[in-house]
């Protein structure tokens, strides 16, 4: 049962406020605090408030809007704990994003209802509203595109859904594919047989798979061919029935490769295509198959495009800031290029430069 918070100084809500939340249960209070109070420290740092604990009571103080938000956050986290969902530091981080962004009445709408339990017995579940919509779309559509920056859980959640579908016997096999394109580096000659040559490109898929299930189980499924990890080129000429197929790093496919992949889908199969259109490593002049598919297939019934943004990043909090910084730099570069082209066009036409507008009197 959720306990409403009591504001202790409503007369100063416009400036500062304090509040008390009593969860009335020691186990719930400890779970809310996290290891060495890391959850409370994170709230203080992110929201600019003070959080103190006395037994089952949490005392909050700071700017009124931040305190009100913290009360709502604590109540939501409390309900998740009472529903049997452990709360970790990253859950608090994502909870702040979800509730702060709006669109969800509560964290339970997004984070409850796990997709899968990993090999470490931790629940894998959506951490943002866009991730929840992505997972729901995979359940209801046969072809889903997950497009967005690194760290938004596109491939990880697709892998979790694939393993869940296999465990529930909804498919008979999982196929994980990725184009073998170098990310801005020339790797040169790689020793070994064909599989050993392509393994470095497929390592992220193996890592995610081993996070979903015990290493022995994963090795057995790979040996039996129930789970197949292969470069995209291996898909040509095949028909994939009763399969959950994931194409990762799809921004590095050509238009022809994307068409080839999408036409491999057979009966009772699903395909999830993931990629980041800002990290294309194709040669200059080659159009990304992912960009092309987004424009060509957006109105095709049965195909869903899930778009992610930096707010959906579930890696280290600094990753989100890195993405924003690069986006700002790219925008500034584009604006400078447009200004240079405009100046060059004006110079070539012989038109005099436009003087800056005179300031309006009184400004």
TrEMBL record:
InterPro entries, per database record: P-loop_NTPase, PhoH, PhoH2-like
Presence of the UniProt keyword Ribosomal protein in the record: no
Residues covered by the PhoH-like protein domain: 123-327
Domain of life: Bacteria
UniProt-listed Gene3D superfamilies: P-loop containing nucleotide triphosphate hydrolases
Pfam families registered for this protein in UniProt: PhoH (PF02562)
Principal location: cytoplasm
Compartments, as annotated in UniProt: Cytoplasm
Sorted UniProt keywords: ATP-binding, Cytoplasm, Nucleotide-binding
Chain segments annotated as coiled-coil in the UniProt record: none
Family designation: Belongs to the PhoH family.
Full protein name: PhoH-like protein
Originating organism: Pyxidicoccus parkwayensis
Organism ancestry: Bacteria, Pseudomonadati, Myxococcota, Myxococcia, Myxococcales
């Amino acid at each position: 049962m959720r306990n409403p918070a009591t504001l202790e100084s409503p007369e100063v809500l416009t400036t500062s406020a304090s509040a008390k939340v009593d969860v009335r249960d020691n186990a719930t209070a400890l779970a809310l605090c996290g290891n060495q109070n890391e959850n409370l420290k994170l709230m203080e740092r992110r929201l600019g408030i003070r959080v103190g604990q006395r037994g089952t009571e949490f005392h909050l103080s700071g700017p009124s809007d931040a305190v009100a938000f913290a009360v709502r956050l604590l109540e939501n986290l409390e309900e998740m704990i009472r529903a049997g969902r452990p709360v970790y530091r990253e859950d608090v981080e994502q909870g702040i994003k979800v509730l702060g962004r709006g669109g969800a009445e509560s964290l339970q709408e997004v984070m409850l209802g796990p997709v899968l339990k990993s090999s470490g017995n931790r629940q894998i579940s959506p951490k943002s509203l866009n991730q929840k919509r992505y997972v729901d779309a995979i359940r209801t559509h046969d072809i889903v595109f997950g497009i967005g920056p690194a760290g938004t859980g596109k491939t990880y959640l697709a892998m979790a859904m694939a393993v869940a579908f296999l465990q529930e016997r909804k498919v008979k096999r999982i196929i994980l594919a990725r184009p073998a394109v170098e990310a801005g580096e020339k790797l040169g000659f790689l020793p070994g047989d064909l599989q050993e040559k392509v393994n470095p490109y497929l390592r992220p898929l193996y890592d995610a798979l081993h996070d979903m299930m015990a290493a022995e189980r994963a090795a057995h499924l790979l040996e039996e061919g129930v789970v197949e990890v292969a470069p995209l080129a291996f898909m040509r000429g095949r028909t994939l029935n009763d399969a959950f197929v994931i194409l990762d790093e799809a921004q590095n496919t050509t238009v022809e490769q994307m068409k080839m992949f999408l036409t491999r889908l057979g009966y009772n199969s699903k395909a999830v295509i993931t990629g980041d259109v800002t990290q294309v490593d194709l040669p200059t002049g080659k159009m990304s198959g992912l960009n092309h598919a987004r424009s060509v297939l957006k109105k095709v019934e049965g195909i869903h495009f899930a778009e992610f943004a930096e707010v959906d990043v579930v890696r280290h909090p600094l990753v989100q800031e890195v993405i924003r910084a690069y986006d700002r730099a790219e925008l500034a570069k584009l604006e400078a290029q447009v200004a240079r082209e405009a100046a060059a066009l004006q110079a070539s036409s012989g038109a005099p430069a436009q003087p800056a507008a005179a300031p309006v009197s009184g400004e």
